[in-house]
Amino acid sequence: MDAVRATAADVYGLERWGQRLLTILPSGEIGLVNPLNPDAAPVALPQVVRELETRGIRAPVLLRVNAFIEHQLRAINEAFAGAIRAAGYDGAYRGVFPIKVNQQAEVVDRIVRHGHGFGFGLEAGSKPELLIALSRELSPESLVICNGIKDAEFVRLAILAKKLGIHCVIVLESPRELETVLAEARALGIDPVLGVRVKLTRRISGKWAESSGDRSAFGMTMNQVVDVLDRLKAEGLSHCLTLQHSHLGSQIPSVNEARMAADEAARVYVELVREGAPLTHLDLGGGLGVDYTGEHKASANSINYSLEEYCTNLVETVKYALDAAGVAHPTLVTESGRATVATSSMLIFNILEATYYDQATPATAEDGDHHHLEALSEIAGYVSEARLQECMSDATWYREELRALFRRGQIRLREIARAERVFLYAIDRIKRVAAQAEAVPDDVAEALEAHADIYHGNFSLFQSLPDVWAIDQVHPVMPLQRLDETPTRRAVISDITCDSDGKIDRFVLADGVHHALPVHDLREDESYYLGVFFVGAYQETLGDLHNLFGDTNVVTIDLRADGGYDLVHEVEGDSIAEVLSYVEYDPRDALDAFKARVEARVSEGGLTAAERRELIALFKDSLSGYTYYEH
Ligand SMILES: *Cc1c(COP(=O)(O)O)cnc(C)c1O
């Protein structure tokens, strides 16, 4: 077992980024660990995939593991409770889940259920999200926090929620919004429960830096906050202001940035209390990050802190600031979305085929070939560890010269084709020697990554991994099987869309992020599955219909205490008819039009009646089928 762990885990760095939710089994397969029952035998992931396929649920499939959501919810709540106890903080912790991070009913309902005992609530940033929040069975202690730009109807719903016993806070984003709230409250004759969203002046680094500081699109500057307070006082409604909110953006890379923000937020809190606002809640927003690369450093896809450090630092920072001013400790609220759900889902897809950028079969120049081709041909004979760089340079040089000759009409098609084969054979030799070498020069390693294979995956990046495309998000990717074999090839992963952006070319490995993924040779009779991990946050509804690839199949499983698993929920992916209707085609009309065309050909004698039957059946089957490659 230990030896197996060493080979496979070392390559992909699973031990670093896997958060002990994933492991490598002696069978060479990825196992799902039950974090709620760590003694239970892990569930072999390829086994789950095989059993889904037997049921007709084919890849690509998004697999959600309930236990991972429950575990993470508990971890966050327990870490805050622990930090509060250790610091002697007098307030409680009341987290809320920001619905925009994953709006799927299956996910939100799990969070509501598992969060009940912790008084965990929901954050809504839009009217549809508010309707979701108001219709869930939250515990009486739970908060519903309303952020975002709100119209009169949004505000009316949020005010009326009070009548239902829901602790629903309207967080004012602007002085204008206050006027809407005042008008609605007056009309309803109900005092609203209010918060103010304050723009902190300190900015965070990372991809979401724009969400912090003066120029962020949300919240109010200090002078606007003062205006709002004065306006509330003038209306005799200052007692309604009970919550202060700030949110700095997602995936805060460094714990000291979170601490700086908490410190400034606490200072504002103190001042607002001194101004007479009866605040009881301090909401520090989202931003708790996920260590996607396992590097534990302050960078775009990693973080330099643990959950416990995050909680301890926020609690202590707020406590110091309030104690210094003699202000009572408020209930602490955070809105951690990414950290709650990122780990809970994975995208699983099969590899359809590979394009190789080397060839193992020897190839040489023939009599009469250009002398550059002869020179290219000789390289394979002198590849050695000491001459790796020289061989790489020679191969690149002669291939370029030969291509130039071809472009000028000086060599023919078959000769340039031979040149390609000879080149690919030389690359194969270089790759093999490099794989065994003690040290490979950086330039050679980089050049070899540029000659990585392309593995074509059955998925759409635009539909299933939009952040990989849009903001260079790095998710851990690795094969689900054969992890007891050393992967012999390096590949980039291309998706099934006809778009050259549809590829994954940054991979988390044991020693950092690389441009090629170690993979195994494909076998004729065997599916080869890759998993993209930690895709539970933001990916599901941000995706689009590029090339009309629709939603994938989605399956939720429960991990049982006895080591088994149960399939608890399944959503079939979009059919072709569904995606056609999304772009305003009527599938019925399409079928009728096709039938008419076919019938016309039958009348002309160009098709037989039997061919007609077959064609129509095929069209119908396709309409009701999956948008992805079916095998
Ligand atoms: C998006 C958002 C969050 C969630 O942030 P995470 O980094 O996913 O925790 C929280 N609060 C507000 C106001 C947001 O807009």
Would you write up a description of this structure?
The chain is of the alpha/beta class and 631 residues long. Helix content is 41%, strand content 16%. The chain is built from 22 helices and 23 strands. The strands form four sheets. Strands 4, 13, 14, 15, 16, 17, 20, 21, 22 and 23 form a ten-stranded mixed sheet that branches. It has an eight-stranded parallel sheet with strand order 5-6-7-8-9-10-11-12. It has a three-stranded antiparallel sheet with strand order 1-2-3. A hairpin with a 5-residue loop joins strand 1 and strand 2 (30-32). Helix 4 runs parallel beside helix 11, helix 14 (388-407) packs antiparallel against helix 15 and helix 21 runs antiparallel to helix 22. The longest helix has 24 residues, at 413-436. It is globular, with a radius of gyration of 29 Å. Mean pLDDT is 95; it is low at 1-6. Pyridoxal-5'-phosphate (PLP) binds at residues 98, 100-101, 123, 125, 147, 247, 250-251, 285-288, 335-339, 537.
Provide tags for this entry:
631 residues, alpha/beta, 10-stranded mixed β-sheet, 8-stranded parallel β-sheet, 41% helix, 16% strand, globular, disordered N terminus, binds pyridoxal-5'-phosphate
